[in-house]
């Protein structure tokens, strides 16, 4: 029997959940990204977390983060390269609250900005 999926901790829902080309026709093809995929992109690419730090923040294994991240980047690329609409919705997640251990570290909802680093790994 398969192990039940663990809900991923997400700081907040995205302010904007749909993106696409300005000239997209009605009924254009769409790509669906889950909220937890969005969160991995935000933490790793924007906040410069390592996959291990992202895993701690989301309360999942590093290997799970790696799989989510690969899937999210593929969807981003498909949307950008092929001009498809991107929608962020759904997935197995729960929103953090002030009682969560890591809340505030990388959490937009409670004012944290995470560990900002430049590409060389230096803290900013």
Features of the shown structure:
3-stranded mixed β-sheet; alpha/beta; elongated; 124 residues; 3 helices; two-stranded parallel ribbon
Description:
By secondary structure, the protein is of the alpha/beta class. It has one domain. It has 3 helices and 5 strands. The chain has a 3-stranded mixed β-sheet. Strands 1-5 form a two-stranded parallel ribbon. α1 crosses α3 and α2 packs across α3. The protein is elongated, with a radius of gyration of 15 Å.
Q: Count the strands? A: 5
The number of distinct helices, counting runs of at least 4 residues, comes to 3
Biggest β-sheet, characterized? 3 strands, mixed
Q: Radius of gyration, rounded?
A: 15 Å
Mean pLDDT metric: 82
List the domain count as a whole number. Answer: 1
Proportion of strand residues: 5-15%
Helix/strand order: EEEHHHEE
Low-confidence stretches: 113-119
Instruction: Tell me the helix content.
Output: 25-40%
Q: Which word captures the global form?
A: elongated
Please state how the strands of the largest beta sheet are arranged side by side: 2-4-3
Structural class estimated from helices and strands: alpha/beta
Task: Briefly say what this structure is.
The protein is of the alpha/beta class and 124 residues long. The chain has one domain (1-13, 31-111).
Please give the structural blueprint.
Blueprint: E1 8-10, E2 18-19, E3 30-33, H1 35-46, H2 51-58, H3 62-82, E4 85-88, E5 93-95
Parallel strand pairs: 1-5, 3-4
Antiparallel strand pairs: 2-4
Helix pairs in contact: 1-3, 2-3
